[in-house]
Amino acid sequence: MADSDSNNAIHDDAPAGEDSILSPRGIEAFTRKVTTTASHLVAPGKDPPGNHYHHAMAQVHKQLKKPGIQRGMFTMARTTPTDLVRSKFSTSEIQSRARSYLPDEMLQHLPENDNAYSLFQGFQASFPELTTEGKKHKRRVSRGRKMIDDSPSASDNPHHLHKLKKERSSLMHELEMLGIRKNMASSEIHEIDNKINNLAGMRRIILERLAGLEQEEALLEHDIVDMESRIDDAQALVEEAESIAAAIDTPNKSDDDDLVTDQDADEFMSKSIYEKLPSASSTPSKRKHKTMKRKSMPILHEHFEPGFMIREIKAHADNITAMDFDVPFGTMVSASMDDTVKVWDLNAGRCIGSLEGHTASVRTLQVEDNILATGSMDATIRLWDLSRAHYDPQGSQFGRDDEDDDGMAFENPDDQPVDPPEGSMADCPLFTLESHVDEITVLHFRGNVLVSGSADKTIRQWDLVKGRCVQTLDVMWAAAQASVSIGTGEGAWRQTTRPATASADFVGALQVFESALACGTADGMVRLWDLRSGQVHRSLVGHTGPVTCLQFDDVHLVTGSLDRSIRIWDLRTGSIYDAYAYDNPVTSMMFDSRRIVSAAGEDVVKVYDKLESRQWDCGAGVTEGEGGRTPAIVERVRIKDGYLIEGRRDGIIGAWAC
């Protein structure tokens, strides 16, 4: 027996890493063990080969060799007991358990609710058709609700009385359900209001964070510009030292070369006196200007509501005559009838300094990046480099090498104009353009081309690289030529239907782009010039008063006039695309990608939304009018990317989100 046991025993010698029981070899060994054990337990005296049990086990062994049976056993071996239990659930039972399950954390921290109705009552009121009571009292009549059946019944019938009471209870139940639903709606409104208030508080916090980031960004921009200026100065010093060293190394001329012969003397005397004069490029007072573009753009104003006042500055003591700025929350320059030109930091509301050089009031100016051009009543145009200003955006001298106070900017707590430190803008002047014989009324520059209009009835084109006038356009001569060459006299000078005013400038507005020039004059005409030929190639007729402002883009040209109208022209056809009018003359206008803003003799800025085709007012006249105050009339407006500034007759400048 022992020998039989030792012979029949099969050891599990499967390699490491395999399942010794569920592998095919393991199953065969397990089957033989079961067979041997059963043969010892059942009738050991009988013949084992003829035993029916061995035959049955052989059939089992044969079935276990089938691949389908083996895969089923492997799958059961890998299945956890939890999965086995879940497999017995039906789909509806699984869905019911998932809906009814609540974690212990939610059961421990139930929120407090002041609602007098339970969750079941709310569900019953919201979905009455799903409840037993709702199905019982479900009405099959119209909104008009029949109170009695169509069939007549006696009023003294007990059945009729019972039916009426039943109908009353149904109505009372429905009224109660409506009250529950009304209470639920009111609770939801309060909850939404609380969420809105919380979101508004979070929005204010994030806006403050964004404002802080933009302030840090402005400081970094200022440091970058300062560093670039130092690099340029150092480069100039190095080049000057190299040129001096090269001049020293060059051998001196001999004495014979220094003698002047008679031929040289004759040639010298025969030259024109103008050829002996130094060229404009050798003028010692002229500086080279370098344009510095901002590397980032503020976006804080885009998150304010339209009509929100960002800042108000008491800039001057008299009427604002001109103003412009480079970017939102950037640098602004303003001019007034008090004969001052001031530079402002819009981000901090501080005055950087005053520009001195003009001998009369500045009528027009333009800021492009760090370059400023100003036109004055003294018939001169001056160019300035604002990046050379000695200004500390932080309002202190921390981190500066120099010890003077010229770079400080002072706060203005009383909203009164305070003179900045002297010399803060001393390095800003570049050069002066002098050719006009009367006051400069309008100017515009792009790149190295500047165009100016004057009360001397001429338009001059300037080369900013050479610093000289390269072309003069006579408006009256162009009008006379148009009246002679065109029989209809479309481009001829014509008198407007409105009486002339002393404030109307002969050249009221102009804009240049490469060789294209648009000009608006006192006769109400808008003339389109080609600077390459110096000729007018199109005249736009429509205004009945002097043109005071204009601006064009790739497709449209927008003009404003003292005839109280704003006209939008199609440059491709020369026809009027759209037009609208106000109650007072238009003195200033500008547009961006969405809005056209204009000053029309009121205490508000007129805004026309091009996308929504609607008019609305923005400015101090809207906000202060509610408090009983009457602000001054708006004279000048400028807008860029939804950031609006407006200058008033009392010298106040306001910045608004538009």
Question: If you had to describe this structure to a student in words, what would you say it looks like?
Answer:
This protein is an alpha+beta fold and about 650 residues long. Helices cover about 30% and strands about 25% of the residues. The protein has a 4-stranded antiparallel β-sheet with strand order 1-28-27-26, with no helix packed on it. A 4-stranded antiparallel β-sheet has the order 2-3-4-5, with no helix packed on it. A 4-stranded antiparallel β-sheet has the order 6-7-8-9, with no helix packed on it. The longest helix is centred in the first third of the chain and has 92 residues, at about 160-250. Residues about 5-15, about 140-150, about 265-285 and about 395-415 have low confidence and may be disordered.
Topology diagram in text:
Blueprint: H1 2-8, H2 24-41, H3 52-64, H4 67-78, H5 81-86, H6 91-100, H7 104-108, H8 119-126, H9 132-136, H10 158-249, H11 255-258, H12 262-270, H13 273-276, E1 308-314, E2 320-325, E3 331-336, E4 341-345, E5 350-354, E6 362-368, E7 371-376, E8 380-385, E9 429-434, E10 440-446, E11 449-454, E12 458-463, E13 468-474, H14 475-485, E14 507-513, E15 516-521, E16 526-530, E17 535-540, E18 547-552, E19 556-561, E20 565-570, E21 575-581, E22 588-591, E23 595-599, E24 605-609, E25 614-618, H15 620-623, E26 634-640, E27 643-648, E28 652-657
Antiparallel strand pairs: 1-28, 2-3, 3-4, 4-5, 6-7, 7-8, 8-9, 10-11, 11-12, 12-13, 14-15, 15-16, 16-17, 18-19, 19-20, 20-21, 22-23, 23-24, 24-25, 26-27, 27-28
Helix pairs in contact: 2-3, 8-10
Number of helices: 15
Determine the fraction of residues in helical runs and give it as a percent range: 25-40%
- What is the C-alpha radius of gyration, as a whole number of Å? 46 Å
Major sheet description: 4 strands, antiparallel
- Could you tell me the number of beta strands? 28
Spatial strand sequence of the major β-sheet: 1-28-27-26
What class do helices, strands and sheet pairing give? alpha+beta
Arithmetic mean of pLDDT: 78
DSSP strand content: 25-35%
Unreliable residue runs:
4-17, 139-150, 265-285, 396-415
Distance between the termini: 106 Å
Shape: elongated
